[in-house]
């Protein structure tokens, strides 16, 4: 292919005015925010900012035992400080964070599986008017569940429930249940419907035909979505701990209020380790599910 042919194909390519105008509007908005006074970029480069950063790294973020140690003893003092703090506080808090995330993800997956036959717009009897109305209401319910942020849900449920942990669990389950209900329903829509129709023609009800014929076929995809949302629940449960139950988020708030930035950074590190471990376990599980299917 010659250079002229390549140039001709480039000029003949499909163009989208909408995308170009959208990019122009976004660029203009970013430029306006940068020069219009909303973002003061010059303040970031003042000398006092550098002094504050040096003080934070050398004093605020440094445990007192490490600051007082000399030379090679600093590493041992840091290890002893981190070990004692993790054993006394953060290990149990990390376990509580994982427990909240796992329970919430399981409840969300169960709710999504129950909603999936209702949100799916295909399958036996999907063309009837009552079935379309039910599907519309179920999909609207999923939209409402995932439209409210988890933190707001947990805050509202915390005023109704005596346990802050269960408020966080239900908030995560409601939000992620709406997401999984939609994803599971779309998975059922895209599945091969012939087996479900055969079950329905043989006398099975619509729900029985959908669950019995389609669920085994789409189970690997369901599990993949479940592990994706489990990753999200692990991250969000760390943040929701700030509402009161003893998780890593709780200790982060306590350390921040007391000005113990060294302890706060250690809690951040523990949270990052938990999230990365959950991501790795989720990736292994998703890969095993894909290989098995």
UniProtKB/TrEMBL annotation:
Protein location: Cell membrane
UniProt keyword list: Cell membrane, Membrane, Transmembrane, Transmembrane helix, Transport
GO cellular component: plasma membrane
Main subcellular localisation: membrane
Membrane topology: Multi-pass membrane protein
Boundaries of every ABC transmembrane type-1 domain copy: 94-285
One Pfam family hit: BPD_transp_1
Superkingdom per UniProt: Bacteria
Annotated transmembrane regions: 18-37, 90-115, 164-185, 206-228, 234-253, 265-285
GO biological process, one term: transmembrane transport
InterPro entries (alphabetical): MetI-like, MetI-like_sf
Keyword Membrane belongs to the record: yes
Similarity field: Belongs to the binding-protein-dependent transport system permease family.
UniProt protein name: Phosphate-import permease protein PhnE
Organism from which the protein derives: Saltatorellus ferox
